[in-house]
Amino acid sequence: MSTTIQKFILAAVTTSPERVPSGTAVFHCKSDSELQKICANLEAILDGIAHELDEGLFIIVKH
Predict the structure, then answer these.
(1) 25-51, pLDDT tens digit by residue?
(2) Rounded Cα–Cα distance for residues 63 and 19 (Å)
(3) Quick check: pTM over 0.85?
(4) Which of 13, 43, 46, 56 is deepest in the core (most CB within 10 A)?
(5) What is the Cα–Cα distance from 1 to 43, expressed in whole angstroms?
(6) Residues 41/42/47/48 CA torsion (nearest 10 deg)
């Protein structure tokens, strides 16, 4: 039987890096427009989905 990780956080994208715990890849953005652009690019590159946890804080998740 093969064990595969099905769901996990690939990265966090934020305008407030102090809100993200250590051990997570963090992309720090200076503006909301940059945040949206980085999230869209990471979704495509990593084949993941961006989820907004709070204003200025997204996670990219592999489902």
Answers:
(1) 999 999 999 999 999 999 999 999 999
(2) 23
(3) no
(4) 13
(5) 30
(6) -120
Tell me the sheet residues that pair with 14: 28, 57
Contact at 8 Å (CB) between 46 and 62? yes
How many Å apart are CA 1 and CA 62, to the nearest integer? 22
Q: Which string of DSSP letters, residue by residue, matches the chain? A: -------EEEEEEES-GGGS-TTS-EEE-SSHHHHHHHHHHHHHHHT-EEEEEETTEEEEEE-
- Across the chain, mean pLDDT equals 90
**19 Cβ neighbours under 8 A, 6+ residues apart:** 54, 57
C-beta of residue 60 within 8 angstroms of C-beta of residue 46: yes
